[in-house]
Amino acid sequence: MTKEWFSTVEIAELLDVGDRRVRDRAKQENWQKQRRQGLGGGFEYHLNSLPLEARQKLAKQEAEQIATSPTSLMRAGSAVAKLQMPAVSQTEKAKSIQQFINLPDKAQKRADAKMLIVNAKAKFCMPYLEVRKLVDGEKAFCEAYVKRSIALPEWVFSVISSVSVVTIRRWENVLTKEGVSALAGKYKVERPCLLNDEPDLADFLKGLITAKPHLAGKAKQLKKLAEIYAIKTDMPWQIPSISSIRRWVNKWISQNQAAFTFTTNPKKFNDKYRTAVEQTYPWMAAPNDVWEFDSTPVDAMLKEGRHTIIAVIDCFTRRVKLLVSPTSSSEGICLLMRKTLLAWGVPNQGGLMRTDNGSDYVSQRTTSIYHLLDLEQSRANPYSGWEKPFIERFFKTLSHDLIELLPGYIGHNVNDREAIEARKEFAVRLKERNKKENEKADYDLRMTQPELQQLLDNWVDAYYHLRAHDGLKGKTPNEVYRAAQYQVQSVEHPEALDLLLNHVGEYTILKGFIKAGGLRYTAPEMLEHEWKGQRVRVFLDPTDVARAFIYPINNWETRIEAVDSRLLGQEISPAAYRQTKKEEAKALRSFRAEMKQLAKTFNIGEIHQTVIEHYAKQAKSLVEFPTQPIAHQNPSLMALTEAAEQLVKTNKPGYSDQQIEHLRQKRKAIEERKNTINQQHATLVRNEHEKARLLAAESLNRELTPKEDAFLKDYKKHNKLGAKRIDEIMGHKRRATN
């Protein structure tokens, strides 16, 4: 202890008695004493003379002071050394401290707790040690610790719930021999792995688990694959055990977590590891400086089917505009642009429009609108949501705060979908699994497209724009907009905006007309030579697709009105016209598919063979009546005939009778072989139709095998026209048997 002499007042407080009784006991037991310095005089008594109960209380107070004081590990170690424990050398102590610093936080906390317990126990047991009752003191300390009557921090008890005499002595021994870091726990030292000596095997496993990450947790299969590869390639690998491979794989993945995730799961890498310290749009200083556009499918089924939300966000204020559309198309984007321009005004000079890289956002119609408004379009790279973070963050808020509450909610992912499916009984799901008409039966289809549009607009105005945002330092979008005192550049004539948004492109006038969107527009001015060859911009009338307004490039002061006389006066809107064209194209594709199916059903591809067979059959049924030939009279032939007869008379055969007979037999054999070959050629099957007819003909002379009979039945089932021919052939057999 730091104090050795105590006054009668201090001893009386420890023993909970009066001063007089302390003096009487000191006189009776002859306590060691000395004159007290300072005012009041009197005697003070030495620690070793005090009763045991007094020394126990002093030890407990000392332990509490140590536990609550900011004693460092070095000072604690020094205090323990003063308790007559052998001290480690300075070199070992420095090494232990260095090891302690490099320990994980959890291990450091465990060592700190043990150090405090050892130090508190030493102080607590000092009075017992002086009277040679150390074991009793240790037991008393352990009992007090379990009861939590030792004034140690609460976190010490949470780390180490109970102690024993043997445990504390072991800690003291470890502290003496190995230093502070050893108190963190003697866990098994990492065992050497054979993979450290087999770099090729390690590379094989690295390539395997990065190419097939689902195998990373299957050490048994990894070992088997390594063995097979080693045998096939004659690699002299010493393949370790399954547990060794498991430890090596887990360690390698933990050491290369970010790189492994980047290779095997880019989306997770972007969400968890991608650097996000830079500021997006650092130059942004006012509303309408930057707008971000994006589209996302609605995770809810409407009465009209699943729809898409097209959204734009003003990045400076976080204001949002939404449009519900059947699909994300240039038509929907232009409608959202009109809605936003009328509400927020035109973006600032040099404003940036950050869009997705989809075909709807890079279409000619969409990009031309940005160009005509002098806006810069910046396209995000595919699958790079962090390049438009504001709209992505908004979609997440919308999805979790509102979409999940909608009737007809279908889930954000597979787990949500399975939970929705689980609401139905298994028997019902099994019965309706293959019924397409029940595809929407799982959902509560109560909302229509206009109803969802109204709901989203109300949610944005009544909640999102009035909600404090962390990115706005706790302010709401409306507060930021008001504080900016922004002067809106409004669109004075919405009709002009409607025309602008119906820009269909740039064309060249060649023969007094232009073709745009499948229509042919002309005007008297376009017949003049000044207009021929000019490059012009074409805008459709929002209410009548038959009327277009044409402006020369770089000249907005000159305008002509062109019409398509075929549709003029019918007041067909461009949107309705485009929709009709889509429906017509869809109908044509459906008709083409139906005709292909009919051609397949009636085997039109083999119709030529059917025609030839028909005429061949008719030809066989015809009987040709013989006629008496008439000799052809020709002077040349008659003269040559006389000469030939003369040769026959004068030339005699030069072969004997035996030779002539031999030649006759040989000629006969050749003729027979030729007939056999011709028959084989005649029966050669070129396709399934000939095979079917051949089998039908052979059925007249023999019984078909089960395989042949099955082929004929299948052929007749799938070839209606060919089946008639087969029935005719086989009909001869039935008539013959009858």
Automatic annotation (TrEMBL):
Ranges of residues in domain Integrase catalytic: 283-485
Limits of the HTH Mu-type domain: 2-66
GO-annotated molecular function: DNA binding
GO biological process: one example: DNA integration
Gene3D superfamilies: Ribonuclease H-like superfamily/Ribonuclease H, Winged helix-like DNA-binding domain superfamily/Winged helix DNA-binding domain
InterPro entries: DNA-bd_dom_put_sf, Integrase_cat-core, Mu-type_HTH, RNaseH-like_sf, RNaseH_sf, Transposase-like_Mu_C, WH-like_DNA-bd_sf
Protein name: Integrase catalytic region
Species the sequence originates in: Shewanella baltica (strain OS195)
